[in-house]
Design goal:
By secondary structure, the chain is α/β, with parallel strands linked by helices. The protein contains 13 helices and 12 strands. A 7-stranded mixed β-sheet has the order 2-8-7-6-5-3-4, sandwiched between helices.
């Protein structure tokens, strides 16, 4: 879709193309981060660009641990020995799967899900087990419980959620924790809860993001500063290993080892230093909120079936054509670039990213959505 979009923009002009494809943040990092980068480059410390401990700089990991300890009400406090700096959340997840999965072991994930999860798990000889969510994209705990069995090594959650924008209810998460605890007793071993939370800073309407580290004792949190700080291309993130895991030191050592042998070696040195002082900051929230509201109202007024996102910069409407791939082709006729839900394990839907499309362009795109709605008989 990226290549199609580039060609379309050349042909009809960028202002006439409505690109809702990539989740690429459109805001620059905080000015304080830029100033700190400038100062670092002008006043380099000895060895600033060299190797460090494969887990990352100790002072950076301490800073991250302090931030998380304030954010999460943890029974046992995190330390630097629970934090591993990674090449983004994607790099972190791959390191985790390499560390925990034996051949054929399963990772249960609610569907829809981020398309690359299946490739991450498969790459490390595991098997992704998608579990349908409810119609509001919240967890279907009965189906999830049935999916957790002999081969289950982990449950993978993403909240705020890509592609739907939902935040999982705390009550559901606590019930899921109870289910996992019962399964662990039945199987006689731990089942890891892995959370992918790169959108944890992008939460709307005063919604609160439940603390998975507090709810699930056997857990690992993966996140990045790609979205909240606008650093997607810098590939900086971290893993937080819950100290209540049965053997957190063994998990830490495995992850540090695999961080190296998978070729990441260590997270980018400059970025580690910069994000240590910027945890909790978010760029562009007011603009993202404005874009969400215009897009949601516009689609709802046109009769599209869509759930209002509580976070992220994504929306996941139901396709008026049961063949969502065909619907994306039809949308192209109106210069609309959208992504079919099939790629996220949810046929019959389509994803819209409002990360890098202006409010003016969103408003302008409503005429194209209207034409599609007329074509499919949603409105007359």
């Amino acid at each position: 879709m990226f290549e199609v979009g580039a060609e379309l923009k050349k042909r009809v002009g960028a202002t006439n193309v409505f690109d809702y494809t990539l989740g690429n943040p459109s805001f620059e990092p905080p000015s304080r981060l830029i100033i700190n980068l400038h100062n670092l480059l002008l006043n380099p410390a000895e060895g600033m660009h060299g190797y460090m401990n494969n887990a990352g700089f100790p002072h950076v990991r301490n800073s991250i641990a302090d931030f998380l300890n304030k954010k999460h009400a943890l029974e046992v406090q995190l330390s630097s020995e629970n934090i591993v700096m990674t090449c983004g959340a994607a790099g972190g997840l791959n390191v985790v799967f390499e560390s925990i999965l034996n051949t054929g072991e399963e990772v249960v994930v609610p569907s829809p899900y981020f398309v690359e999860y299946a490739f991450y798990v498969d790459r490390h000889q595991g098997k992704l087990v998608p579990v349908p969510s409810k119609t509001d994209f919240q967890l279907d705990l009965d189906i999830m419980s049935a999916a957790i069995g002999e081969k289950t090594k982990a449950v993978l959650l993403n909240s705020p959620h890509n592609p739907t924008g939902v935040i999982y209810f705390e009550e559901s998460l606590r019930k899921l924790a109870g289910i996992i605890r019962e399964k662990e007793q039945e199987l006689g071993r731990d089942i890891l809860l892995i959370t992918d939370e790169p959108y944890s800073g992008l939460v709307f309407d005063g919604a609160e993001l439940p603390s998975t580290l507090s709810i699930f004792p056997h857990s690992i949190l993966a996140t990045s500063n790609s979205k909240d700080l606008g650093l997607a291309g810098e590939r900086i993130g971290y893993l937080a290993i819950n100290p209540l895991n049965t053997d957190p030191a063994e998990i830490f050592n495995a992850i540090v080892f695999n961080n190296r042998i998978l070729g990441f070696v260590n997270a980018p040195a400059l970025m580690q230093r910069l994000v240590a002082e910027a945890q909790g900051e978010v760029v562009g929230m007011g603009e993202y909120l404005g874009r969400r509201d215009i897009l949601y109202k516009g689609l709802s007024d046109l009769g599209y079936d869509v759930i209002k996102p509580q976070g992220t910069f994504y929306m996941f409407p139901k396709s008026p054509d049961t063949d969502d791939v065909e619907f994306t082709r039809k949308a192209l006729e109106y210069n609309l670039l959208i992504v079919p839900g099939t790629g996220f394990g949810a046929p019959g839907y389509f994803r819209l990213s409002f990360s890098s499309i202006s409010q003016e362009q969103i408003q302008k795109s409503m005429e194209a959505f209207r034409s599609l709605a007329v074509q499919y008989g949603i409105i007359k």
